[in-house]
Predict the structure.
Amino acid sequence: MNENRELIEGIFQQLAQGNSRALGTAMAEDCRWVFPGSWSWSGVWEPRSAVLDGLLRPLMAQFADGYRNEADFVVADGDRVVVQARGYATTVSGEPYHQTYCFVFRIRDGQIVEIIEHCDTALVERVLEPLR
């Protein structure tokens, strides 16, 4: 089996159990996270410290009961791994946050160097506070 696919599948096994730190641990120092498009969260966070401090920590702080993310399927081709996934949480204001994602990961030397996230942007705009 593809090592890159195994890496990402292992991360999603941890995310499904509520261990959101598994993803950050697998990121390279020069990792970048991209929200494409033209909505309030569109942009690029890089390097790893900006991903963790500017994106993931503020995002996770908006959830009252933790966060789980389960992979529906994983497809790997070379240094790219694509995951369709579902996220589950409740916001601190009591709103359900049941998200659908498509993540495109790029792996280099066993570490994540890029994450492109596609998600239900209308849900984000409706129930989450802007990050910037």
Remarks:
- The longest strand covers residues 96-108.
